[in-house]
Amino acid sequence: MTAEPDGPEDRLRRFATIWSRAVFPVTSTSLTRPEFEQQLVPLARRLSDALRARAFDAAEGQAVGTALIAAHCTDPEALSRTLDCVDAYLVLYCGEDGPQDALRTRSARLQHAMAAGFAQALRERTLTEQEAIAQATLNARSAVAEALHASEARFRAVFEGAAIGIGIADLEGNILQVNGALLRMFGGSEQGVRGRKVPEWTHPEDAPQVWRLYEELVRGEREHYHVEKAFYRPDGTALWTNLTVSLLRDADGEPQYQLALMEDTTERRLLNLRLRYEATHDALTGLPNRTLFFERLEKALSAGEGQRFGLCYLDLDGFKTINDSLGHAAGDRLLVEVADRLQSCATAPGEMVARLGGDEFVALTTGPDTEREVDALADRIMNALVTPVRIDGRELTVRGSIGIVEGPAGERGPAEVLRSADITMYRAKSAGGNRFELADPEADARAITRHGLTTALPAALDRGEFFIEYQPLVHLGDGSVRGAEALVRWLHPQHGVLGPDQFIPLAEHTGLIVPLGRWVLEQSVRQARAWQERHSDAGPLRINVNLSPCQLTHPGLVQDTVDILEREGLDADALCLEVTESALIGADDDLLKPLRRLAEMGVDIALDDFGTGYSNLANLRRLPVSILKLDRSFTQSMQQFPADPVDLKIVEGIVSLAHSLDLAVTVEGVETGAQAEQLRILGCDTAQGWYYARPGPPERLHELALVDATG
């Protein structure tokens, strides 16, 4: 019979046990270790909950650090051991099955918050002790003779029992008394500490104001001061302290002694340095991360007059393929190798390399001559990537696309510079990759506009910003209006009226083309029904609606079309769906099946832009189309007289082929009467273009149809 696996509560208590064993030896408490462990269990539970919470809450970590002080864990070693324990075991015992990298990052942030809470609570305790010491000192000085002995006893108790270091010196700097805590900080004997004068305790990292404040205090011009100060220990190591020095006066108010209170912050400082490094460097590659890079970039952009900057934004080409085929471990090893190579490219003063995340890196150069230096830096990076990387016996070719931004400091902010570099990098990638491109403000503006339009598309449909214009379809034989093509427009609040070429590709990319196409179909069918009711004597008017390739593959195409026709009461033969020739090149039966079903219902299918897709003409027989829309490129020469005889032969051949297959021919882009007459002679059936009418509101088609009916 196998044992049941440990539950979350068991793992939590195991973590609390490990924590108590680590911290108990350096804790000033009268509790036994098991009793002390029971105090840590609720703190361990708070850390566990904070580790797995949906959103990070630094207050939880700070509260645990504060609670340690309340539990008498005031020795800095207790904090150091606690953080080591949390770093090693919190994710292991309390992380359950969550993502390990994210949990370790959350654990590091919790450690930082715990250290902050510990420091704040210890500082408040220190201030409380300072007040007690100051009060005891005043009582000892001002009490009557009968209470002098008791006051001195209280002062001595506070002096010797304080967790912080305390020293008393005269105004000449001679050290008179020190307590045990201060001696332990310096790791030496009392004689070794008292044998030196205060002005001898200098350190190279002393702030300029430290000794100025000291001189003001011993002259009686200042009552106290507080600074962060380093000291040398006897073994040469540094002791960092929060130092508070106060002036003690005699009964007549004359300066007499100086009282120094020292809090040892060495471990905390080392921890903060370590946490700062971890917070500003990439864990995988060791390079500076996004946080540190933005700090450096902001500093470079705020440099003085005459300073410039150059930025290379690198994205590896095809990195996802390596991750998918060889695994993330191989991808990580590749990133480490790339990071090492990039690091070797940026060794000059003012240059740095950072990893922004994933397979994105940046290289920054600063100085007065970055116009030349940034190009040289990009060349070094591209050359560094030439040599293949060998991983698990495979040689992997590394390629990268780089966007370069260069300019004077003080004109742009970090976010704007990085956005420009990102846009430029994608322009290099779109051009084939393995190259670098220079930033172009006009290209940036176009990309930003495209992004703005993309994000505004969904709301635009909800707000009713789209509308439809209609271009008449005219019969070339008798000049009658046979219908119209529906052309969608976007009335953008800032950019005005936008044509489909400006937003249809964006709608296809985001998937919005399906609901937008359904809306266009519904509005167009409703309009066609209105035309029929108003001009019943003019014969049926057909409505042509464009379908994008994305709509062709949408499973609801046929049902949506049927529902709209039935709801609006329009016959299927009054609807024509236009599909570009390129969308049907090489189409299999699955793609053609919905078109065949629509054609069987009576809906006309038109092959739009015919002649631009280089399709095999023999394939026309298998496509469920009834109309060819001849691309305007074949008929442009017919605007002049005489027309190009080669174009005439091509159009004549296409028309003959189409008619032999029982297909009607519609011509786009008719702009002159000569062109229309020539196309009529060649046998084309219908036409559309500016010669007849530009796209416009549905009322214009009413007028044209009315003229045709009465004319």
UniProtKB/TrEMBL annotation:
<dbReference type="InterPro" id="IPR001610">
    <property type="entry name" value="PAC"/>
</dbReference>
<feature type="domain" description="PAC">
    <location>
        <begin position="225"/>
        <end position="277"/>
    </location>
</feature>
<dbReference type="InterPro" id="IPR000014">
    <property type="entry name" value="PAS"/>
</dbReference>
<dbReference type="InterPro" id="IPR000160">
    <property type="entry name" value="GGDEF_dom"/>
</dbReference>
<dbReference type="Pfam" id="PF00563">
    <property type="entry name" value="EAL"/>
</dbReference>
<dbReference type="Pfam" id="PF00990">
    <property type="entry name" value="GGDEF"/>
</dbReference>
<feature type="domain" description="GGDEF">
    <location>
        <begin position="307"/>
        <end position="441"/>
    </location>
</feature>
<protein>
    <submittedName>
        <fullName>Bifunctional diguanylate cyclase/phosphodiesterase</fullName>
    </submittedName>
</protein>
<dbReference type="InterPro" id="IPR035919">
    <property type="entry name" value="EAL_sf"/>
</dbReference>
<dbReference type="InterPro" id="IPR035965">
    <property type="entry name" value="PAS-like_dom_sf"/>
</dbReference>
<dbReference type="InterPro" id="IPR001633">
    <property type="entry name" value="EAL_dom"/>
</dbReference>
<dbReference type="InterPro" id="IPR052155">
    <property type="entry name" value="Biofilm_reg_signaling"/>
</dbReference>
<dbReference type="InterPro" id="IPR029787">
    <property type="entry name" value="Nucleotide_cyclase"/>
</dbReference>
<dbReference type="InterPro" id="IPR000700">
    <property type="entry name" value="PAS-assoc_C"/>
</dbReference>
<feature type="domain" description="EAL">
    <location>
        <begin position="450"/>
        <end position="709"/>
    </location>
</feature>
<feature type="domain" description="PAS">
    <location>
        <begin position="151"/>
        <end position="221"/>
    </location>
</feature>
<dbReference type="InterPro" id="IPR043128">
    <property type="entry name" value="Rev_trsase/Diguanyl_cyclase"/>
</dbReference>
<dbReference type="InterPro" id="IPR013656">
    <property type="entry name" value="PAS_4"/>
</dbReference>
<dbReference type="Pfam" id="PF08448">
    <property type="entry name" value="PAS_4"/>
</dbReference>
